[in-house]
Amino acid sequence: MMKGYDVVIIGGGVIGCSVAYSLSGRGMRVAVVERAQIGAEASNAAAGLLGVQAEWDEHDPLFELARQSRALFPKVAVRLREQTGIDIGYEEKGIYRVAQTDGEAERLQYIMQWQRQTGEACELMDGTELREREPHLSSSIMSALFCPQDGHVLAPDLTKAFAHGAAALGAHIYEGTEVQRLIVENGRVTGVATTAGVFSCDKVVTAAGAWSTPFLQQPEWGTYPVKGEMVAVKSYRPLLAAPIFQDGFYLVPKRGGRILIGATKVEGSYQKHVEAGSVASLLERAASLLPDIRTAEWDGAWSGLRPQSRQQMPYIGPHPEMEGMYVCTGHYRNGILLAPVTGEHMADVIEGKEQVNLLQALVKGREQLASAN
Amino acid sequence: MMKGYDVVIIGGGVIGCSVAYSLSGRGMRVAVVERAQIGAEASNAAAGLLGVQAEWDEHDPLFELARQSRALFPKVAVRLREQTGIDIGYEEKGIYRVAQTDGEAERLQYIMQWQRQTGEACELMDGTELREREPHLSSSIMSALFCPQDGHVLAPDLTKAFAHGAAALGAHIYEGTEVQRLIVENGRVTGVATTAGVFSCDKVVTAAGAWSTPFLQQPEWGTYPVKGEMVAVKSYRPLLAAPIFQDGFYLVPKRGGRILIGATKVEGSYQKHVEAGSVASLLERAASLLPDIRTAEWDGAWSGLRPQSRQQMPYIGPHPEMEGMYVCTGHYRNGILLAPVTGEHMADVIEGKEQVNLLQALVKGREQLASAN
Amino acid sequence: MMKGYDVVIIGGGVIGCSVAYSLSGRGMRVAVVERAQIGAEASNAAAGLLGVQAEWDEHDPLFELARQSRALFPKVAVRLREQTGIDIGYEEKGIYRVAQTDGEAERLQYIMQWQRQTGEACELMDGTELREREPHLSSSIMSALFCPQDGHVLAPDLTKAFAHGAAALGAHIYEGTEVQRLIVENGRVTGVATTAGVFSCDKVVTAAGAWSTPFLQQPEWGTYPVKGEMVAVKSYRPLLAAPIFQDGFYLVPKRGGRILIGATKVEGSYQKHVEAGSVASLLERAASLLPDIRTAEWDGAWSGLRPQSRQQMPYIGPHPEMEGMYVCTGHYRNGILLAPVTGEHMADVIEGKEQVNLLQALVKGREQLASAN
Amino acid sequence: MMKGYDVVIIGGGVIGCSVAYSLSGRGMRVAVVERAQIGAEASNAAAGLLGVQAEWDEHDPLFELARQSRALFPKVAVRLREQTGIDIGYEEKGIYRVAQTDGEAERLQYIMQWQRQTGEACELMDGTELREREPHLSSSIMSALFCPQDGHVLAPDLTKAFAHGAAALGAHIYEGTEVQRLIVENGRVTGVATTAGVFSCDKVVTAAGAWSTPFLQQPEWGTYPVKGEMVAVKSYRPLLAAPIFQDGFYLVPKRGGRILIGATKVEGSYQKHVEAGSVASLLERAASLLPDIRTAEWDGAWSGLRPQSRQQMPYIGPHPEMEGMYVCTGHYRNGILLAPVTGEHMADVIEGKEQVNLLQALVKGREQLASAN
After folding, report:
1. CA distances from D67 to C340, D51, D330, D338 (A)
2. CA distances from residue C228 to C40, C159, C223, C259, C332 in whole angstroms, order as listed
3. How does residue A42 score in pLDDT terms, banded at 50, 70 and 90?
4. Which run of H or E residues covers position D157?
5. What is the DSSP string of D9-76?
6. Which residue ranges does the record assign to the FAD dependent oxidoreductase domain (chains A, B, C, D) (predicted)?
7. Taking burial as the number of CB atoms within 10 A of a residue's CB, which of B134, C218, C245, D27 is the most buried?
8. Nearest-neighbour CA in chain D from A270: distance (Å)
9. Residue C93 DSSP label
């Protein structure tokens, strides 16, 4: 079997599907090659926070990219609903970043300052004011930074919508199909050999998350998994209107009365089991912020393997050494948030519209930041 | 435990939840008492067709009610999305009622005529024209009546959205709670004894679908189940844009590439198993309309027990003999379609705004229709 | 539809199925009428402990019955495997009742004494000795009473095996079928009206667990639910060989590396949801006995509604007032353990072989015990 | 992380787990490296037929191996139950190979003859005699060959039992762990690099089923998938006592009233979806043998990817070119049946007890057979 495509994308997570969607929308013939099912790994496990402000401690280059991506969501949500019938659950009710200690409260001050300098709105409030809006929160919360532009989406629905949106625009989705090796001719990637046959193509995009390393073929590159374990509860009684974020930990209210609680960070393991001790500690910490968690209904536990890059920065751009190879991976905790901008940027690059190499820009920006500090 | 409510609703299906949503929106204190989970029976099993025109063979009183209800969906969809975050999957791309025999084709002519007289748009087309719009349909389809105002929703999501919408407006949802008996004082229903204690109330609404009989306490009334078995397939390749209806049988495209195929009619059994023979025959019939069904991916089988009333007509109104008791049941195949109008009408009746007894109007209308023929 | 049976059994839990199995084995025509599926409630949720000695604090009449029933398991296991192919997972490796406080340790002494007087073997050991056998247990365990005759089974498999064993012997199993009312003629029960029609019969057995009250029709009788919430973990590394019991709490190792952890006691609610707080506290308590629970893999949570009788004693015998009605319910935490003896005893009673009314014997025995103390 | 083992086994299917069990039983330190979960692929999908006689058309070398393996099951079943608590569902009630045409009936004669010459018992009977034993079978069945020594097991339980049996004997099971590459030093395999780190070892066994090719590194070797789709129905009424086999198609009665129906053969695809058309045709064919299938309860559909070798023969033996590498793969439809003998033989080879190379013997035997014909 020999099939010809403009672009073959390795990996059917949210990043690969977003790239497929952007490329298909520009008329390219695209194949997504996914070894399991669309969204089967980190994408379906994610809480879907669009926490540009709530989750950023410092003003770094990634912050700018995150702002751009967040700004794309309102239109993406409408368009995907029209094209695929799938509602991505986009909510823009803001996120509260909360403090339970003096140190945390001071940090909120600092964050508010630099974010306002970037032009982003945010608002500091004390615990009493917070509980007027979210009356079920614990009195142990001293203050909160409210980031009204932040929001959240349903991560599995976003991924599925990108895939079906791409398919509606002509892309081919190959589930249950593994890439066995790249086909390289005269130093240029010209196709992939898969378990469903050989696909020839002009360009290959590696978007394989924590499984990207074998396709990058460069010692200092590569991704590794950081497992995030999560639990969920549910309740018909509304307990929370907007997400609560605190130092890597969060509570995210979802439709149907669900509250997602996450996430742990376990480096270096591809084993997706959830440890019983993590279940207990996530519930304890959640209850310290929202005591009624204890009487809410248990609704399950799961985990995802978020892809961290060795350079601690997403790779988004042409591969520096392999012609015809493009790389979109290493988004770690920001895959959902950065999916729209990654897809659009990569389509620009592949179309040749975009001169800037985003990856280089990110690395350079970070270096400048480091030297400035 | 003693709780006081304005209205207690027996049954957490789409009808009970719609009534709860309408009543809560008008400021009443409402409890929904559901023995299993919200939507657990016929509501979650339904295909969600809003086939007012495609499914109606004759102009009868129910047709008028169905039109009214269909007209409510656009606003209901928007409001529920805002209040609950749940998208009910409302699609208004029309439905095709198809003919594979001369007899069926003649019937389409007749239906088009009377429907146009009622002011409804509909359009007859031959098979070639149909396949221009839906290219995967079988060449054995001779003609189709296109009903552009018809549509469909996701039945489980509609039910859940009504329940969470009611809860957001203050209603209490008691899952896992059975009504053991009505409490009647001086000929008036004043509460219900449940497995979660006694609830006193001003009014009780019976919306228990195929399980309503014990609460109606009148020999000629009652509901019985008509089991509908269904199967589903899925595909990334788009196979169908709008639902196909043919004499009680249908194919309904849903988000995520799913196509629902249904339904059988098995009278009188509360046993919800799907017979293997039904699976095979549903698939065969579906493939006779849409041959690519055969290569689509199998996606499961299930059934629902649709409540038929002894009078073959939904009961929507005050109980004729028990003061304080209201009845909303027996919607048979039209529970999803009629849910919005049932909720609003029942709220009018309970508020005393509505003088007309919808049940009587329906029965009277049907009698007039019968005598006219 | 009119079907004639010798005995109709209301309820397809472990008790109803055991009675059906015993009666069918004696040649009677039997129907089991189950409103959901076989074992759907408390039976499938149970941990399956056969903790005759480990769970009994005092020598009461029920202890004697429990001993008899435990003694039946070896043969029952072999017979059901032959007849149905189902292995009930019978394990007779004993149970350890453990003490973490001086008070608990003293209690173990007392229990050992009276149990040895009844002729039962049991052995007291200190923590060191215990950990030689079960090396992963916490050093906080001071001592343990080892009850070598105790064991456990897989509760869902036992229930299913009784049902299929009965069916293989000719019994009819009606799932998805509710009993709507008893048919009583001249003061004698002569059948049941169900959602699958009327079944006439000579005798009716009520074995409906926490849903038995409506069929007992006697003010002082009745059952109510005591919810037990449970969690499970799993591990390929063997962590525990035999069950650990401590004051109503237990860890039970099951095939496939699972460990069941239970159970809470929540009175009076039919709502089967598991509270998030229960998940956390069950895991914490389990880890205080077996610290490696924390790193084991989370494997789910569920609950069951165990039927407690108003007299805190199982009802096993003819109904004192309704001729033709027999009662087997209220087994609370001992349904699995007592199922074999309940089935055999009830078959004896129904055949007229058994003069003794077990229910009266139990009540009388308890009164004697009370007056002796 | 650096771990040392005697043997690392790539693949946690029934073959890999059987090898692990045999090696652990002989005191070796073993690791099983499985990229998903134990049994996740073909092993859990299999019907578990031990159809040595019913499935063999000709007396070939594999028949001898299959006889040996079948003879091991009674003891394996007992031992695994004792060591792991898992009952593998071993049933030795024989298999009926049936004929619906004259051609099929003649073939049964031929098979009976050569099998009796090998010393195996088998019995030819006409349709009437067959239906005395299996009264629900279709009258269209003309005759049957009864193979009383054949039987069946529960394939998922066998796989799980081997894994837990190995773990109980000290083996380490690494789920969620992929082998990234072999470590070869001086032409000898000395370990594997996995997603859970590097494991050094004396010997590596490749038992990766349809995913074995990358580890075999020899052009003419390799395995490819042959997808088998299956469906199941269930019934409390006993419909079938022993398996029915007909030319690659079978009905297998399992505990709990299930009947497995399979299987299709789809070559070359790793996509595990079940096609809707396969569901319909499997049910139709099953109903032509056992008409009551139509009214039985639908119980699901699934598929497995059976590993076929390029030489159409299982590979069981040392790798001909890579020192330290052993190969157990390509068992196609006979993985369950051949698992015990494969494990024992491989352990003999690895211990150096076995001089004969089973792979060479198989290939040689087949060549002799070919030249003789």
Report:
1. 40, 10, 18, 9
2. 14, 18, 15, 16, 10
3. very high
4. helix D155-168
5. EE--SHHHHHHHHHHHHTT--EEEE-SS-TTTTHHHH---EE-TTTT-SS--HHHHHHHHHHHHHHHH
6. 6-348
7. C245
8. 6
9. S
Residues whose CB is less than 8 angstroms from the CB of residue C66 and which lie 6 or more positions away in sequence, other chains included: C52, C56, C334, C337, C338
* Tokens 């996995």, located at residue: D194
Partner B contacted by A81 (CB < 8 A): yes
What tokens does B103 get? 């007899």
**Is the Cβ of A164 closer than 8 Å to some Cβ of chain B?**
yes
Per-residue pLDDT tens for A306-322?
999 988 889 898 988 89
Separation between Cα atoms, residue B36 and residue C305, nearest integer Å: 14
Interface of A with C in 218-247 (CB under 8 A): 231, 233
Residue C1's pLDDT is: 44
In tens, the pLDDT along D267-322 reads 988 999 999 999 999 999 999 999 999 999 999 999 999 999 988 889 898 988 89
Label residue B1 by pLDDT band (50, 70, 90).
Answer: very low
Nearest to B311 by CA among B115, B62, B10: B62
In contact, A287 and A279? CB cutoff 8 Å: no
Span of A232-241, A286-295, D301-310, D360-369 with lowest mean pLDDT = D360-369
With CA atoms as reference, the chain A residue closest to D210 would be A195
The gap between the terminal CA atoms of chain C, to the nearest Å, is 55
Short-list D251, D255, D261, CA closest to D302: D261
| Contacts of D353 by beta carbon, 8 Å cutoff, 6+ apart | none
Helices A335-351 and A61-84 sit at what angle, rounded to 10 degrees?
90
pLDDT value at residue C211: 94
- The ipTM assigned to this model is 0.92
Distance from CA of A227 to the nearest CA of D (A): 12
D269 inside 8 A of chain A by CB: yes
Which two structure tokens, joined as six digits, stand for A239? 């307990």
* Residue B20 burial by Cβ neighbours in a 10 Å radius (0-12, 13-18, 19+): buried
Tell me if residue B301 falls in helix, strand or coil: strand
Q: CA angle at residue B180 from B177 to B186, to 5 degrees?
A: 125
Q: How far is B117 from chain C (nearest CA, A)?
A: 43
In single-letter form, the type of residue at position A256 comes to G
Q: What are phi and psi of B100, to 5 degrees?
A: -115, -5
Contacts of A193 in chain D (CB under 8 A): none
Q: Which of B236, B252, B259 to mutate to test the interface with A (most CBs of A within 10 A)?
A: B236
The residue with tokens 């309940």 is C342
Contact C172, C294 (CB under 8 A): no
Structure-block tokens of residue A71: 């700004």
- Name the band, by pLDDT with cuts 50, 70 and 90, for residue A366: low
- Give the minimum alpha-carbon distance from B270 to chain C in angstroms, rounded to a whole number: 6
Give the DSSP letter string of B252-263.
Answer: EEEGGGEEEEE-
| CA dihedral (B115, B117, B122, B127) positive or negative | positive
Interacting residues of D186 by C-beta distance below 8 A, sequence separation 6+: none
Q: What is the rounded average pLDDT for all residues in chain D?
A: 93
Task: Give the residues across from C310 on adjacent strands.
Answer: none
pLDDT in tens, A209-220: 999 998 988 767
pLDDT of A1 strictly over 60? no
Residue D220 confidence (pLDDT): 75
Size of interface A-C (CB pairs under 8 A): 70
Distances (CA, A) of C134 to C47, C100, C104, C129: 20, 16, 19, 9
| Helix axis angle, C335-351 to C14-25, nearest 10° | 40
For residue C214, give the nearest of C35, C20, C23 by alpha carbon. C35
How many CB atoms lie under 10 A from the CB of residue C217? 15
